[in-house]
Structure formats: structure tokens, C-alpha cells
Amino acid sequence: MSGQVLNGKKTRGGGVDITQVAQRAGVSPATVSRVTNGRSTVAKHLAKRVWRAIEELGYTPNPQARALVSGRSRVLGLLVSEITNPFFPELMQSFEDVAGEHDFEVMVGSTNYNRERASIFIRRLIQRRVEGVAVMTFRAESHFLDALIAEDIPLVTIDVSANAARSVVLEVDYAQGIDEAVQHLALLGHRRIGFASGPMPHLTNVRRKEAFVRAARKIGLTADKAPIFAGEHTFEGGTLAAHHFLRIEPRPTAIVCSNDMMAVGVLRVLATSGIRVPRDMSVVGFDDIHLAEFINPPLTTVRMSRQDLAQAAFNGLEKLWSEESSGSLTSIRIGTRLVVRQSTDSPKGAANGLRRNKSTRQAETQTASA
Amino acid sequence: MSGQVLNGKKTRGGGVDITQVAQRAGVSPATVSRVTNGRSTVAKHLAKRVWRAIEELGYTPNPQARALVSGRSRVLGLLVSEITNPFFPELMQSFEDVAGEHDFEVMVGSTNYNRERASIFIRRLIQRRVEGVAVMTFRAESHFLDALIAEDIPLVTIDVSANAARSVVLEVDYAQGIDEAVQHLALLGHRRIGFASGPMPHLTNVRRKEAFVRAARKIGLTADKAPIFAGEHTFEGGTLAAHHFLRIEPRPTAIVCSNDMMAVGVLRVLATSGIRVPRDMSVVGFDDIHLAEFINPPLTTVRMSRQDLAQAAFNGLEKLWSEESSGSLTSIRIGTRLVVRQSTDSPKGAANGLRRNKSTRQAETQTASA
DNA sequence: TATAGTTCTGAAATCGATTTCCCGCAAGCT
DNA sequence: AGCTTGCGGGAAATCGATTTCAGAACTATA
Questions:
Q1: What is the mean pLDDT of residues B287-300?
Q2: What does the pLDDT look like over B216-254, one tens digit per residue?
Q3: What pLDDT digit, counting tens, does each position of B64-102 carry?
Q4: Do A362 and A271 belong together in one domain?
Q5: Residue A53 pLDDT greater than 90, yes or no
Q6: Nucleotides of C under 7 A from a protein CB
């Protein structure tokens, strides 16, 4: 079917063009275009002939030509923080899937917390004429984005509004999941809970921290019973946090982390210090990366759905495309929820610690994998 | 600079076209094209004027228009197995970096071991007119690729040759790293070593297994002292393998895994079975994913460089582009090497086990992070 | 000095779609 | 019957680059 010879010229499957289809169907190219785009009505019998010709020749419209005349490239940009945190590849995949369903291609770039790298990527986005960009770095406050804003490219950011005319903010409801986590710990009998925060100037991290502070207060913990340590959102950040909390007297019986990578770091320090989890210390993560289920012990963590995030990001862009006037700053809420696994339990010496029974734990684990 | 008004019509930065540049520089569009492409000589003073105009207007050539006339899309495809194995995101990033340096964009897709998903992605690649595809699934034998081959799209595969006119094979030298690993274990005093293989029909896994068999024989291990278990290249595959080896009598003192995800599964089973690593059992992985350094204990593993792989894949494509005649099947070799961390040590009861001293271990760890 | 041979430049064709403009025809109305 | 309206479809313009072709200017040679 493809690779055949037509008009004496070799045509790759993609090499069939609209004129050949038109010829074969006995109509004009314009009509073929009308059929494939369905924007205008074409007599049924003609449409049928066109579809058959398309089928027989294996025609697919040339996206470059299409983009050229329509002015729409059907390419989106996705900016993430770093590829080594499994949360981001998972998010990437979700976003590509959503975009793909709508015939968009995605250019993905990771900043790796490197200004230079980010600008190079953004320049590439602009050159490719992307129709919109999802900024999923949780650090949108930086002026990475100025170039994009200057080009008036629709932008979706997380938590923090880009100072752009055409932008949508995804508001993540951290409080929901973090509340659940702290309640869960309280219920297990914990009365001293540390919080390993992400680096502080960034709004996302401020929000997560504040959510923790409020949750702690809600269960009656004063500031000294809910100590906070801020570090990078990485394995190393987690190790530093763990060391910090181990030095505190009296020592917290549980640590809530601002993301799962930190939790992995915390677990490592605890393991090498001979502190058993969850027997001697409970640990809660945030993100629910795929690996959370597989590390030792499987991590209780707050799940932020990448599918929801990806879908919301795409919806946000669609909204920006449809609005003629660069409208009001809309925001879309994303929920979070606790997934209980095995890194949390009653503190060793708790008088009133309720040990969870087997069936409860199973039910919770099941929820996690659903 | 951008967003300015020119000829009464609003121009986004990217909206500046070659005619405007030509006008400003007082030359024809053809000359501007010659300057930006450097394919033909242009008088120095004119070139200078053109560059200045380009600079002043913030002109970047429209890639769609360029692709349309040149017939080259400057888009590549990258097909990986699954996004949840951190090896692949890391490879992705390397490939995108290499491609980006040469002004190529990359469409990434993961099969997730799902035939349907793979075909959909491949259809998208063809529609976008990719100029080449790197197939990094380690399962190229499937006829995923038939559609690409029919389109005569240049293909780079790993280990196994796609049956295509225009293709290059990346031969990974598994023996090198696996030999080192087995030698390392032998030196520590291990005499019974299990191998957790990947699923069997796939050539890559056959190669890794054979490399292990040969290495085991080299240190004098008969088949019964080097048992093999084949499972999926996943966490679950690792847990199955571990359970298998724990049932064997006499039990192996070390397990070599065909990839790091399996090793993580093995470690988990060992931990929950109360078997300490490396004291009671040594474990070696394969890939050296970022997380290998961070799990408990840090994993001794065989590193396969994603940078080398990505660069080799791109070089392979370049080779295919330059060859007019769809030449001979060339292959490019990729090396592997052992990275020693803390999941390997002398077996508990070994008479002649040499304990590594601290300085050695440090030196080796340093190599790992370099 | 005349002629052949180089360089360099611009006009125009081209890539493959979409979209505008216009014409012909059939249906609806008085 | 005559006129308007509306719909479907073809011809041609368009998007923004590259590339071919041919002419102009300049150099080198006899």
C-alpha cells in the first residue's frame, strides 16, 4: 500500500498529498480538505468517495503544511523540574496522553533547577511556535517565563500565577491530604510530629508548610511539638531533615515530608541509624510516586493525581484558547488524599495508640493501588 | 521588541517573517535565507545587515514552513518500554539533550508493554513525519516496527536488528559489566550466585543471561551453583525471583539481577524476610538508575551509560541520513561497567572472604558518582 | 579592449495544506 | 413564471520558508 509508485514518483505513505486524493476521488482539493476537517458540509456521496480514496492511498495530512496555513502548530510545551524525581516522568506521560488524544504533540523539558537550561528550552518552545505551555516546576515565580509571556503564549502554572494575560492557575488543595495525614498520625497516638519542608521562598512549599501548621494546630500541637525543617526537595534534603529531627529533644515520633524523594532520604537515614520504621518512627511522604509502594517499608503518603493534574492543565489551555479576550485569571482546584501503607503506626510507647488490625490495613492498601 | 506593531499588524515575536527581515535589511528574502542557512556565499556587508535586522526584529525561521519546503521535519521519535522504570526517563532526557543540540525535537512514547499503545504512538510518529526513530524498548523483535519500516524511516534499535533497510543496531557489551560483577562477587568469596533474568524470549535478556552463564563458568561455577530464574523486568519480577532463590537448598549467597527494578524487588523481599543485605545476602543490579544510590542499602550495580546510549543512537541516525544507499547494517558498541556500593560483601560464613576496608569502599563509591 | 568566466543577487516557483471568493443550481416564495 | 435565497463545490490566494533560474556586476584572460 505504501511505498508504491504513483505518477512515476516514489511516494512514502506520508508522501501522498491532497491533490492525489482529490484526483482519485474526482473532486477538488478543497473538497478533500472540507471532508477531512468536517468544517463545512459536503454531499454524502462525494464524502464517501473521498474517504475511500483516503483509505486506499493511506493519506494523512501533512502537519507542517497544515500548521503553516492555519497558524496553529499543534505542539505544546511541558516544563518540569527534574527527571530524576519519578513524579515528573509520571506526570509527563499523563500529559502526553491527554494531549495526544487531542492530536497535540508535547515538547518536554526539565530545568534540573538550572536557569540556563530552562531558558534554552524555552527558546526552543518559542521557536517551535508552541500553542501553550504547562509549567509544572512548582517554581513558576522565577522569570523563566518572561519570554513566553512576551510572546503571549497561553500558560498554565501550579499554585502561583504567572503574571501573564493569558494564564490559568492550578490550585492544588494541599490542606486536604496533609490534614488527613496529620489526623491519621494523631489517631495513631502521635503527639510530636516533624515536618520536612521544601525550600522556602517557593510558594508551593509555603502552602504545604502552612497546611501542615494548620493541621498540627487543629490536633492541638503547639509549635514546639510540630518542628519544621526546610531543605531541598531531594533525597539529600531528606537526609538533612532526618538528621535534624533526630537531634531534637524530645524527638518527634513521626515525620511528614513535603515530597516523596525527601521521605526516601529520611528512611535511609533512619535505617542506617538503626531506627525502625514504623516501630520507632513513622514517616509520611507527599506525591505518591510509583516507587513509594516498593521501598522499605512501603510509604504512607499523600497522593496528588498526575492524571488530574495533566487533565486540568490541558483543560486550562483549552480555556485560554477559547477565550477571545484574555479573560480573568481562572483557577482550577486539584485535590489530594492520603494513601496509607506501612511506614506509619502507633508510636512505641503510646498509651492510647490504636494498633490497626490487618483487615483495615489491607483495605487501605487496596485503595492505594486502585 | 516583540509584540510590536509593524505594517499596522500585530506581530508576535515569532510572527516576524523573512520578508520583513529582507525589507529591513534592504535585500531579497532569498538572500536572508542564504544568510541564515549559510549554504551559499553572500557579500559580507549584506550579511552583516541581514544579521542585524534578524537581531532587531527577533526573527526565528518558522519551522513549519521550513519543514514543508525542505521535506525534513526535524522531529525524531523515541520509543521506550515504560516510564515507571527510572532508567527510561534518564535515557529520554539524554536523548532529548543530544537531539536538541542538533535542533531536533523528540517525540517520546512509552509502550508500557502494551501492543495497542505502541501502535498508536507509532502512527503518530508517521503522521508527524519523523526523520528517524530510536527504539529503546529492548524488545524490538516485535512487529511494532513494521509500519515504520514500510515508511522507510531510519531506525536505531538495541541489540536486535530490525529487519529494515535503513537501520543501525546498538550492540551493548553486557559481558563486560556482568563479568566484573561476578568477578567481584567471587573475590568476596561467593560460590553460589543466583541470576534473576528478564523474560526469556527477548534477545536482550538472552544476552544478559548468557553473559552471566559464561562469567559464572569462568570462575568455576557449575550450573547448579549458578541457578537462574526468569521473570519480568519489574519490582514484582524481582520479588518472585527472590522467593525462588530463598527456597533453593543450599541457598545462594548472592543474587545478580538483570535490571535495577528487579533488584529493588529482591531487596524488599529480603528485608521483609529478615535477611540482611549484604551481611546475609549480596545483591547486584543492572542499569544504575539514579535511585540505586539511595535505596537501602545503596545498590552495587552495572552501569549502562544513558549518555553513551543516547549519543550512539543519534550518531546511528546521522549515519543513516548520510548514506545514500541504504547501506550495510552497521552496529555501534556500548560498554558497561560495575559500580560497587554497599549491597555486596563477603558471605557470612566464608572462610576466605576478604572484607573490603573502608578506603577501598570509598574509592569505589567515588567512581560511582563521577 | 573584447570576451569568457565567476560571483552574487533577486524574481518566481515550490512545498501541501486551508480558506476565501464566486458561480451554478435547486428550492422557496409571491 | 420570475425572483430571491441558500447550499455545495471549484479556482485561486495564502501561509513562510527554500531553491531554481537567470541576469547583473565584476574579474581574469587573450
A1: 94
A2: 999 999 999 999 999 999 999 999 999 999 999 999 999
A3: 999 999 999 999 999 999 999 999 999 999 999 999 999
A4: yes
A5: yes
A6: 7-12, 14-20
| Contact predicate A140/A201, CB 8 Å | no
B273 and B189, same domain (yes or no) = yes
Is B266 inside a domain boundary?
A: yes
Range of the domain at B35: 5-61
B39 shares its domain with B91: no
If asked whether residues A129 and A224 sit together in one domain, one would say no
Spatial distance from the CA of A38 to the C1' of D8 (Å) = 14
Nearest to B268 among A60, A110, A294 (CB): A294
Q: Does B273 touch chain A (CB under 8 A)?
A: no
Do B225 and B191 form a contact (C-beta atoms < 8 A)?
A: yes
Please give the single-letter amino acid code of residue B336.
T
Residue B208 and residue B76 in one domain: no
The tally of CA atoms less than 13 A away on the side-chain side of residue B21 is 31
Nearest to A294 among B68, B124, B264 (CB): B264
Please report residues of B whose CB lies closer than 8 A to that of A3. Answer: 150-152
- The separation between CA B224 and the C-alpha centre of its own chain, rounded to angstroms, equals 34
Asked whether residue A207 falls in the same domain as residue A258, the answer is: yes
Q: Do B129 and A295 touch (CB under 8 A)?
A: no
What SS3 class is residue B196? strand
Q: What is the number of structural domains in chain B?
A: 3
Report residue A272 CA to chain centroid gap.
Answer: 32
Alpha helices by DSSP H, B130-276: 146-150, 174-188, 203-218, 235-247, 260-272
Who contacts B330 (Cβ-Cβ below 8 Å, separation ≥6)? Answer: B168, B169, B316, B319
Instruction: Kindly report which amino acid residue has its CA closest to the C1' atom of nucleotide C18.
Output: A69
Note whether B2 contacts A105, CB cutoff 8 Å.
Answer: no
* Residue A318, helix vs strand vs coil: helix
CA B358 to C1' D2 (Å) is 107
Q: Are residues B316 and B294 in the same domain?
A: no
